[in-house]
Amino acid sequence: MTEKVKNVLLPLCFGILIIAIWQLGFIHAALGFKPFQLPVPSQIVITLRDNFAKTMFDTVITVSAALTGLILGCAIGFLIAVIATMFPKWGYSVLSIIAAVNAIPIVALSPIMNRWFTDGFSQKVGVVTVVCLAAMSINAYRGLNDLRPFAKDLLESYAASGRVIFLKLRLPNCLPSVFTALKINVAAAVMAAMISEYFSASTSGIGFGIKDNLRKGIMAKGWSYIVVAAVVGIILYLIVMMIERRVIKWHASQR
């Protein structure tokens, strides 16, 4: 059995084992839970099937806001990293400020965005954009400046311009760091969009579905939204990994 097959089969078997233990009630017995407190997987699947259209509509609402904020946050973060590289005297200070902004919890950002924007979609996009800024700007800055020894000196010895050094050396060098930031941000974006739905004015989305159904005690429906959120996060992460393998297949991490 090859190493790649093992890497797929072992987590898959472990996941099936956990679901089987959950379905047979061993978790309920061990933790003293009642069935209405923790629905079994089969009940969650049936509930998801019965409410599939509404769940998919809410999923599209959340994912569209998460992806819009992800693109905006990563684009602004990368631009900040480029500017910080071009103006190193004050660039590192700007990154410190970005890192400080990232320390603001989402539960505080959401009410702030509610005051700044009037519609729920813009509120969610604003929160996700801020959440994605720091990881991209810091990782991209590291990639743009953590160059191989003497590589920049060699290009300068050939009288290469700043534009050539950026396109031929800094940009390829920072791509692995950019994809690392994307993999961090894709999960953070979905999570931030869902949490912001707890506080936004909208009455749709995965986060609102989880909050509303769990608050009403409709546990199976709430758990069905949780399952969909996990699946969405995994799918988006895999998409980023597939793009990474194609774009930087020359890098040691992809061999």
TrEMBL record:
Provide the gene name from the record. ssuC_2
Q: Which family does it belong to?
A: Belongs to the binding-protein-dependent transport system permease family.
Q: Which GO terms describe its biological process?
A: transmembrane transport
**Residue spans crossing the bilayer:** 12-31, 60-83, 90-113, 125-144, 222-243
Compartmental location: Cell membrane
Provide the organism lineage as a comma list.
Answer: Bacteria, Bacillati, Bacillota, Clostridia, Eubacteriales
Q: Where is the ABC transmembrane type-1 domain?
A: 59-244
Q: Name one GO cellular component term.
A: plasma membrane
Which UniProt keywords are present, listed alphabetically?
Cell membrane, Membrane, Transmembrane, Transmembrane helix, Transport
Q: How does it sit in the membrane?
A: Multi-pass membrane protein
Q: What's the name of the protein?
A: Putative aliphatic sulfonates transport permease protein SsuC
InterPro entries reported in the protein's UniProt record: MetI-like, MetI-like_sf
